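User: structure tokens for this one?
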Amino acid sequence: MSVTQDSLECTPARCTRGRPAPLWHARVWLVGILVAVCTALLPGIAPQGAVANPKPPQTVSRAYVTNFDTDTVTVINTDTNAVLTTIPVGETPIDVDVDQGRARAYVVNRESGTVTVINTTTNAVLTTIPVANAPTDVEVDPGRARAYVTNAADDTVSVINTDTNAVLTTVPVGTGPTGVAVDPARARAYVANREDDTVSVINTDTNAVLTTVPVGAGPFDVGVDPGRDRAYAINQSGNSVSVINTDTNAVLTTVPVGTGPTGVAVDPARARTYVVNAESNTVTGINTDTNAVVDTLTVGDEPARATADPSRARVYVTNYASGTISVINTNTDEVVDTIDAGDGPVGVAIVSLSSAREGKCSGICA
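Assistant:
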């Protein structure tokens, strides 16, 4: 399959505008004193309407995976590795991010030029938002009710109001923007411009570009660690990571990684950045305190993107050619599981939900 939009030609494994690139985020249970007294006096008898030994709600984890080849999103229970449902979306979905508080997933459909909005409680499609040509990445800023979408063929970023699901503005950036990451505390969005080897820094309060940072060759994705004042530009053509000081917007150092890196996941709690190397079928682990490579892990065929779940000490890596997800334990830096996904998985985001949300499961407790 080949997708041509403006001068940018893409297949699932390749995107060219001069360089190759693989394509593919508690209820409290109370028992009153009277209930306790009555239960103690009359063992085995519970008052009418009372629940004996009520169980507190549990947190359930779901992975939303975009399947580039079948125009769908697979929803996976990451506790059991079971596929819960498959959701039809737009053409060639390439990335996804979530807004936990609003129970929404935002899916970027590259060929359609749209964003599909999914209710993560019901897994129903709520709406489809037109953006621009060849949208490639999405990042949500829940506090500002915004989603930022890179449009690789138009050299822009679409800013979506996640309360209204309308595009507020379109921000011109560098050439061939493919990746975006948000630092909510600094009110900044960092955009990787693959075709001019730069990162655009956007003020997310004003939607103005503040500066442009030269990085390595072919930056394809970017991640941030707000606590360490760092952004990590993944240079696909340079086989490296540019480490940016987000206070000064200067490159501090460049870290060599594997071949053809295309994705990144940051775990601030464990001082790790994980870089997905699409052409060497590996993930490079970087110590973010020392900027030293500490591990290289073998994953599936043609890994594409990754996301971190620090609460569970996990990183999830999509393997486009294998149709799987590799699960990394970030405490041990080992691949501990492989999950079957759909055909051509590329984007992945994690949602954690309470099993007692709104007093019902709505299909999420399986």
